[in-house]
Specification:
heterodimer; A: about 140 residues; mainly alpha; Helicase, Ruva Protein, domain 3; 2 domains; 5 helices; about 0% strand; B: about 190 residues; alpha/beta; Glutaredoxin; five-stranded mixed sheet; 7 helices; elongated
């Protein structure tokens, strides 16, 4: 009985083994910048950057070590006075526009912006044709 | 509404069938997107660009650290991003050893690693690296556009990144790496 209790207690205090590193998080992974304004602009940027491992999440929303390291990069660069858009450009230069959640008009994305306008124009044209004719008839 | 039915009868086959064709096209697009296996690999956009400037401290004291200057002037080298806590990294160790034995210089960047863990990893899997830099906040990893471990980059003698291999190098892929290294000589 005592042995069983002992085993049960051991289970309670067992440390789960993971395929993660043992290093503590990077300095600014979970620590906000001292200047609230700088932290605000860092947060806004981190909300629109994709975590490279957990690809459906923003880096501000993920506990993956690589997301922590990315937040560290962002906060350090903001603290050094780099502009958020320059940091985004730095990352896009390395990972492509995939890393950024912010919509942008480019070679691949322009149809997304043009298509709705084209459909509205088409609908307007069709409606005018129908009802315009109806009125005149 | 009888007057509107008159032009409808006159409409050509195109206007009649176009909506169905568009809808079928849309369904086909959705099916392709749903059924194609998703690729989670993030290609580095740094291929063809110079290796960014960096300088990393040695990850273990008896092997020198790594800087971008180590890649300039000489043969193409393999830059391997790895970690002792990464299982596929252990799986690719024999392949790295094979590359080293065929005369390739391999430099390592250890991501978020400790000396004790690295020693244990090398005792188990062997150490193919000429230099190992310690990247404890993944800074060099971001600088070269790498998104995980293991990844291998071929850097030519002028310090230009020429090729990226994502994931562990499998036995059948050693030939590809050797061919790419050969290509990077010119």
């Amino acid at each position: 009985m005592i042995r069983l209790l002992f085993a049960a207690t051991l289970l309670l205090v067992a440390v789960p083994t993971t395929a993660q590193d043992k290093l503590p998080p990077a300095p600014y992974a979970y620590r906000q910048l001292d200047d609230p304004q700088q932290e605000d602009s860092a947060k806004a940027l981190m909300d629109t950057l994709r975590c490279l491992q957990c690809q459906g999440q923003a880096i501000s929303d993920s506990d993956a070590p690589i997301a922590g390291d990315m937040r560290n990069q962002v906060r350090l660069r903001i603290a050094q006075g780099e502009s958020p858009e320059a940091i985004r450009a730095w990352l896009v230069e390395r990972y492509g526009s995939y890393v950024s959640y912010k919509p942008h008009i480019g070679l691949q994305t322009w149809p997304l912006f043009v298509a709705p306008a084209a459909f509205v124009a088409l609908a307007a044209l069709v409606l005018r044709k129908r009802f315009g004719k109806g009125d005149s008839a | 509404m009888s007057d509107t039915s008159v032009p409808l009868v006159k409409t050509s086959g195109l206007t009649l069938w176009l909506p169905l064709a568009l809808f079928s096209g849309f369904v086909a697009l959705v099916l392709v997107g749903l059924l194609r296996p998703a690729s989670r690999e993030v290609q580095s956009a740094m291929i063809g660009k110079p290796l960014p400037a960096f300088s990393l401290k040695p990850a273990i004291p008896d092997i020198p650290g790594l800087a971008h200057t180590n890649f300039v002037g000489g043969k193409p080298r393999l830059l391997n991003i790895f970690a002792s806590w990464c299982v596929p990294c252990a799986a690719e160790a024999p392949q790295l050893e094979a590359l080293r034995r065929s005369g390739i210089e391999i430099d390592g960047v250890a991501i978020r690693d400790t000396q004790a863990d690295l020693r244990l990893f090398f005792a188990r899997n062997g150490n193919p690296y000429s230099r190992i830099g310690a990247d404890n906040v993944s800074a060099v990893q971001f600088a070269i556009g790498s998104s995980g471990v293991p990844e291998s980059f071929i850097v030519d003698g002028r310090g230009i990144i020429r090729y990226q291999h994502i994931g562990d190098i499998r036995p059948e892929q050693v030939e590809i790496i050797l061919a790419r290294l050969k290509e990077a000589e010119h």
